[in-house]
Amino acid sequence: AGPEQPAAGGSRAAHVVIDSVGKTFRRAGRRTVAISGLSLQVAPGELVCLLGPSGCGKSTLLRIVAGALAADQGSVTVGGRPVTGPAPDRGMLFQSPMLFPWLTTRKNVLFGPKAQRAAGADQRDDPELDAEADAILATVGLAQFSDAFPHELSGGMQHRAAFARAMVTRPSVLLMDEPFGALDAITRVRMHEFLLTMWEQYRITIIFVTHDIEEAVLIGDRVAVMGGRPPGIKEIIDVPLGRPRHALDVDTEEFLAVKRRIRASLLA
Ligand code: ADP
Ligand code: MG
Fold it and tell me: Whose CA is nearest to atom 5 of ligand 1?
């Protein structure tokens, strides 16, 4: 881990510290311990995958880090600051790109920053912001589609637009909840390549939730295997593979060895 960098004002990667976090849901007289005593540190610029079966608390943990859900126990800090609610320094991406269908790609990207401006009573047009949106759209390969509407974009392009929208506020951490789970296999491979290229470029911290072992090994620096009773982190496994990694590497001995190790941990 490098020295901790301030998250304020830039897209510099933040250190994420999750300390003894627990969350129990109560509904209709039933208690569900979603996660318990969960601790994890993610270094600035690191890409950590949370891997586990459905219902093991992955989304709950991510929502707590995002500030969308309050933990019952423990604490989370991002860039040294306690998480108390949602903030622009933490971007979130989901399986559905969730673009507004009535807005162009460009206006979708600009929606968050413009809403922030409006809340700050600063109603002026901001050419700098517009330039920033155009720069990000060019970076994600959508310069030609900035005036297109979401239904005119392919599934992969919609995800790239959602990525651009998440990055325009210059977050220091990106939280991704099974983002490519609904895509076809080929588009998924392309999105992995895209994500890793963007990660290299922006040098951002990423926490990536998946239930797919191969995906976790393909993109992660480390894989936190979740599960158990009460649910928490069973084991954190280093992915000792070089970068860049390619979809064609998944059948190599080294890759299979990591997969086997993670599968054993999941089933233990
Ligand atoms: P995952 O993302 O790993 O599939 P979740 O974090 O969504 O798991 O859910 C963990 C557990 O908490 C599950 O048993 C789920 O049913 C329960 N849970 C999640 N959200 C709620 C909620 N809002 N109310 C009640 N139970 C919930
Ligand atoms: Mg989930």
Answer: 57
Ligand 1: nearest atom to the Cα of 226: 3
Q: How many whole angstroms separate alpha carbon 95 and alpha carbon 177? A: 7
**Mean pLDDT of all residues belonging to the chain:** 92
Note whether 52 and 211 are within 8 A (CB): yes
Alpha-carbon span 223 to 47, nearest angstrom: 9
Q: What angle do CA 176, 129, 10 make, to 5 degrees?
A: 55
Residue nearest to atom 6 of ligand 1 (CA): 57
- 69-86 per-position pLDDT tens digit: 999 999 999 999 999 999
Determine the pLDDT at residue 121: 56
Cα 126 to chain centroid distance, Å, stands at: 28
The answer to whether the beta carbons of residues 229 and 256 sit under 8 Å apart is: no
Ligand 1 pocket test: pick from 35, 60, 62 the residue with the most ligand atoms within 8 Å of its Cβ: 60
Q: Is the pLDDT of residue 120 over 80?
A: no
Q: How far is the CA of 24 from the centre of ligand 1 (A)?
A: 9
Band of pLDDT at residue 67, cut at 50, 70 and 90: very high
Residue 18 tokens, joined: 């999750």
Nearest to residue 60, comparing CAs of 265, 226, 218?
226
CA-closest residue to ligand 1 atom 17:
34
Here the tokens at position 23 are 């969350």
Residue 118 has a pLDDT of 72
pLDDT at 1: 39
230 lines ligand 1 (CB under 6 A): no
Q: Are 63 and 69 in contact (CB under 8 A)?
A: yes
